[in-house]
Every structure is written in structure tokens, then in C-alpha cells.
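Example (one chain per record):
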Amino acid sequence: MDDIATLPVAGLRHVHEFRIRFGDIDSQGHVNNVRFLTYLEDARLEMFHADPVRNGEPPVRGMVIARHEIDYLRPLMFDIEPIRVETWVTEAGAVSFRLAHEVRDDEHVYARATSRVVAYDVEAVRPRRFTEQERERITRYLHRAP
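Predicted structure:
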């Protein structure tokens, strides 16, 4: 891993709450596995774009997903009660970071996932280094094992 940050053991955990849409349900009556990646995307956009903008901070831009891994732990059925994606950073480097996610409600975890996110220069079409300001926003969510 590139240039891992040395910050506190427990940072913030971002919480993105949403409601399942009828269109998320597949022919077996539960949320289609592909929809989980959309839930992770929505949470990531809130975490690094919408929330900073709401707080008067610039968003973190120019990131691409290099890898997703997901474990489906139990079927997620249509319900009127909200579901949430809890997201935190497990590694933070100069060029990339790793996110951990749980798709859950108050009683159950439906899926656990990790994502490798890479800073990307769209114009140069290549990876880049995160700015200090971007690293500060990313590492506020850093949780490291003691």
C-alpha cells in the first residue's frame, strides 16, 4: 500500500440511509445483487461529494473504483423501513484508499463489502496523488486496527 496514513484508530463512520425501491427487487423477491453496488455508489457520492458541499467544503473529485469485493450475508427484502450503508476507510495512501461497507438495518447486516478507490486525473488519463485537503477528508473516516 502506498504511504499509509498514521492517524487515530477510530475515525468517523459515514451513514447513508435510503429506502428500497420496488425496481430493486428481482424475480426471486429480494434485492438484486447488482443493486448493492448502486447502494455503495450512492453512499460514496454522499460521503465525498454531497456531504462536503452541504458543509461548505469542496468535494473530493477525480476518483475511480479499482476493485469491489462483496459478501452477501442474507437476502434483503422489500420493506418500507429504511436501510443504510455504513462506510469507513480502512487504509489511506497517497494515491488510493480502501473503503469498508456494511449494508444493514438495526437488526441485520445484509452485505459486507470493500472497495479500492484510486485518485484519477481525468484529463491526463492516469492515476494521481490525493491533495492534502482530499487526504484530510478521506482520513477523517479512517479506522485502523489497534
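Caption: Residues 49 and 55 are 10 Å apart (CA to CA).
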